[in-house]
């Protein structure tokens, strides 16, 4: 909005020419998101407490979590507002990719909102059934991917560390992209189990994809780095900046001991946004590295369920894997910070793939 209102004035006042730069708008989208989260956070927490929208704790989970019963949840609405509003303010709204990512973010958030609301209304930790949730997430991802496909989007897939190996998936790119988006949404959702555990790696991942988006959208940079250039993808840097700012602002209230939880409305929307950005920037497989923590959490659940069904034995004391470390006696803050450290390391490795090809 500000881009469309103020940049045309650069012909009269040269200072407004700064609005053409994605870097400038990305920085201020980050700052705006952070300020929105800081300003609205205390009000939202009080509102959630007043409405008695509190977290329901699994009775089979670690006993240390029982004291968190009743902590305000659905704080992900703060994250959504802090992403959407700065993006609308600072991004080029004629960019199709911005609207597709916003569509997935808001739609995944709506599914999470319904899931959270049912948990609160029915006073259990079940919410929507897995089948219902997967149906709606898959449908949303399908709509977004089909829009991309018929807009002339490239269907090649780049493999990290390989310069020339970029197979064209053709029509099969649609189910592949849907898998990336839905998988990312669910992986972040599974990670959201400790105070600040999910939002920390998410901030790191969003910052990493800010770099990827800028590189993919700048054809000179893309050509130099030998990555797939995507015309218009650079504008997603602004949205990634908003995600970083929103995440940092939310972390202020979500850090241990948490004043508010993001709930599914936050984790699903963030994961869906990250997966969609990975698809558009043509860094789909690198997401496995950038979001290594999320992948590890998801895999631990798959391994646990598969092992128990096939052999009647559990590989971990409890899944997702952060609960395993809790039951081994690790203090919650230690698990959180160590997972953040791993996320930083993985992000650095992922960024290195831009040149090591």
Characterize the structure shown:
The protein is an all-alpha fold and 357 residues long. The chain has helices spanning 2-6, 22-50, 76-90, 96-122, 130-150, 173-191, 199-217, 219-225, 236-254, 263-280, 287-290, 292-311, 321-327, 332-352. Helix 4 (96-122) packs antiparallel against helix 10. It is globular. The mean pLDDT is 91.
Keywords:
mainly alpha; 65% helix; 357 residues; globular
Report the count of strand segments: 0
Order of helix and strand elements from N to C terminus = HHHHHHHHHHHHHH
The number of helical segments is 14
Poorly predicted sequence stretches spanning 5 or more consecutive residues: none
Kindly summarize this structure in a few lines:
This protein has helices at residues 2-6, 22-50, 76-90, 96-122, 130-150, 173-191, 199-217, 219-225, 236-254, 263-280, 287-290, 292-311, 321-327, 332-352. It is an all-alpha fold and 357 residues long. The chain has one domain (2-352).
Question: Topology, pairings included?
Answer:
Blueprint: H1 2-6, H2 22-50, H3 76-90, H4 96-122, H5 130-150, H6 173-191, H7 199-217, H8 219-225, H9 236-254, H10 263-280, H11 287-290, H12 292-311, H13 321-327, H14 332-352
């Amino acid at each position: 909005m500000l881009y469309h209102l103020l940049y045309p004035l650069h012909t009269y006042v040269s200072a407004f020419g700064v609005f053409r730069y994605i870097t400038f708008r990305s920085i201020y989208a980050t700052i705006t998101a952070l300020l929105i989260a800081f300003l609205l956070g205390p009000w939202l927490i009080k509102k959630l407490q007043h409405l008695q929208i509190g977290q329901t704790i699994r009775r089979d989970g670690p006993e240390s979590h029982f004291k968190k019963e009743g902590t305000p949840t659905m704080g992900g609405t703060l994250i959504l507002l802090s992403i959407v509003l700065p993006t609308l303010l600072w991004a080029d709204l004629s960019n199709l990719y911005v609207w597709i990512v916003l569509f997935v973010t808001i739609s995944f958030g709506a599914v999470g909102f319904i899931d959270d609301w049912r948990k609160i209304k029915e006073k259990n930790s079940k919410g929507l059934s897995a089948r219902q949730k997967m149906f709606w997430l898959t449908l949303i991802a399908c709509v977004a991917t089909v829009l991309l496909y018929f807009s002339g989007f490239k269907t090649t897939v780049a493999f990290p560390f390989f310069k020339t190996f970029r197979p064209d998936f053709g029509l099969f790119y649609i189910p592949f992209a849907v898998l990336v988006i839905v998988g990312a949404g669910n992986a972040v959702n599974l990670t959201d189990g400790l105070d600040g555990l999910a939002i920390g790696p998410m901030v790191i991942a969003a910052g990493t994809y800010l770099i990827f988006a800028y590189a993919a959208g700048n054809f000179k940079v893309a050509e130099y780095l030998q990555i797939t250039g995507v015309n218009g993808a650079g504008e997603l840097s602004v949205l990634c900046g908003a995600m970083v700012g929103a995440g940092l602002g939310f972390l202020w209230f979500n850090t241990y001991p948490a004043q508010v939880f993001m709930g599914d409305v936050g984790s699903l929307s963030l994961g869906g946004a990250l997966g969609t950005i990975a698809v558009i920037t043509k860094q789909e497989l690198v997401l496995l590295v950038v979001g290594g923590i999320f992948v590890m959490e998801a895999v631990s659940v798959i391994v646990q369920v598969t092992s128990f069904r096939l052999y009647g034995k559990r590989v971990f004391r409890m899944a997702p894997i952060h609960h395993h470390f809790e039951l081994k006696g690790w203090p919650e803050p230690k698990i959180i910070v160590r997972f953040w450290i791993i996320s930083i390391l993985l992000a650095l490795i992922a960024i290195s793939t831009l040149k090591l090809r």
